[in-house]
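Example 3.2
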Amino acid sequence: MTDRSLDNAATEDPPPAFALTTGRTLGYHRAAVDTFLVSARKAFELGGDQLEAADVRTASFPLVKGGYVVADVDAALGRVEDAFAARERERVVRARGAGAWVEQAREDAQTILDHLARPARHRFARSGVLTFGYRVDEVDHVATRIVRYLRDGDALTAEQLRSAAFRMQRGGYREEQVDALLDATIDVILAVR
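Structure, written as tokens:
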């Protein structure tokens, strides 16, 4: 290789960390994802509490043409969240014992079950009649799966809840309430792994 080709190789952009979208398909903004993952790696390596599993779960990125494929990034973020959750569990178990961790997970599960004991179609507050919220029937279906997981031990994974998507309807369930309950359920699932 000549000196000139070495210079060109040194100035080339590194290959993308994830597959890129093509055509009209939108993907996550590459620099935003890369920056977040670098900061997450540093936070994990330092072992502090400046970033937690919940922060990884709620990370969001602008959508752009030619961005990272959303599913690929979301799957990677799920693994990062799992690693942070495992570390958080280890900290609590070391500091307060395994019994405290299990008791907290049990209390959180009971809070979720109490909330979902409400009648179908009335489990969450509704958006206004002129605004959109999550489709009630779809959310209620997922809520039933959560109840079966917590009460009966049916199979349900954090990844299934992370990838839950609901269509919109006027007067549907308020998104922030549904999302908060899904997040709480993911925390319980990660706690008992």
